[in-house]
């Protein structure tokens, strides 16, 4: 792989998966005149993705409206979509085997200079490429974003053989496209923000398991001291306690010294039917079962 860092990359950005994240990334990467190709197995997702990009464009303020073209494609025509790509980002569902399959396919089909990024939240790039037979693994990295454009943070993390030029090019281009990029400088289980948040969740659950305080007290003191809109228990309810447990299990499987009590505490809550906002009961009672979280998320029923 040869990466030219003296001038900006030419070519398009290809995004695999037009779901929640893919369509937001299509908006971001087409926001400075560059073209984007959204790829998805489902035609409906591609149509909805395009509408969503237009919705975000209509809502954008203080923007020079230098929008690039966004096209769509089925994975059957992936090879031609990748032909002039400088970057391809996979945004397919969070499934390790699927990630491995897609990354292998991208490495096989994309030109040698194309940077290949994974947006996976829980699998770092080293875990994804483990055991894979890749042609150009030095252009593969993680590029994990949060909720662009509202939350612009993106964390870039390579594996031990990632070309530093690929990382610095991507950091520069992220900055130029309205992201706030952060470089995770070592291979890490969890990104920078996720690790801090994991520690907060873990210590919250430990304090609760010891009977030190109540969820209401933890949230109240957290909000008061840090001036955040939500406390850790409220936020865990929004994420879903089953999802919180999956994430904590992943840390416990990968690292020594993670206490068991927080996971046991979560397990007990889940076994008693408390999953958080999504089923109406978690640390707090949200009244009734709901599939539309939008109102409850912003104003938990305390
Ligand atoms: N949702 C979030 O808030 C969030 C935040 C940060 C990172 N992520 C990560 O982003 C990734 C995607 O999450 P999401 O929430 O956008 O998922 P999603 O389920 O909303 O979208 C995934 C899309 O991928 C498509 N897809 C599945 N297999 C495909 C394939 N082989 N080729 C092309 N398209 C395929 C699906 O049809 C779907 O449209 C996950 O790895 C997740 O961890 C999500």
UniProtKB/TrEMBL annotation:
It comes from the Eukaryota. This is 3-hydroxyacyl-CoA dehydrogenase NAD binding domain-containing protein. The record marks 144 as: Important for catalytic activity. The keyword Oxidoreductase applies. GO terms for biological process: fatty acid metabolic process. One of its GO terms (molecular function) is NAD+ binding. InterPro entries: 3-OHacyl-CoA_DH (IPR022694), 3-OHacyl-CoA_DH_NAD-bd (IPR006176), 3HC_DH_C (IPR006108), 6-PGluconate_DH-like_C_sf (IPR008927), 6PGD_dom2 (IPR013328), NAD(P)-bd_dom_sf (IPR036291). Belongs to the 3-hydroxyacyl-CoA dehydrogenase family. Residues 190-286 form the 3-hydroxyacyl-CoA dehydrogenase C-terminal domain. Pfam families: 3HCDH (PF00725), 3HCDH_N (PF02737). It comes from Penicillium cataractarum. Keywords: Oxidoreductase. Residues 13-186 form the 3-hydroxyacyl-CoA dehydrogenase NAD binding domain.
